[in-house]
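INFO batch 0412 | record 1 of 1 | parsing
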Amino acid sequence: IGIKRFWTIKEVQRFTTSEAMSSGRHVWKGIDLVLEGGKQKTIAQAIGGKLAQQAVIDELNAALGRY
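INFO prediction complete | emitting tokens
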């Protein structure tokens, strides 16, 4: 739910994670899109576990044809 935004493949530089929230030892991270010029947009929030976070980034890269 939210505003739909579109970027071209050429505009997308990479994907990174950023801390969204934490509770004790549990940390949930967001997935950020890094665009040309260094501007960042959060495209997913509250993903727990490094394996899940990396899986999301890998799937996004695969969808863009980046392996």
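INFO post-check: The chain has one helix and three strands.
INFO record closed
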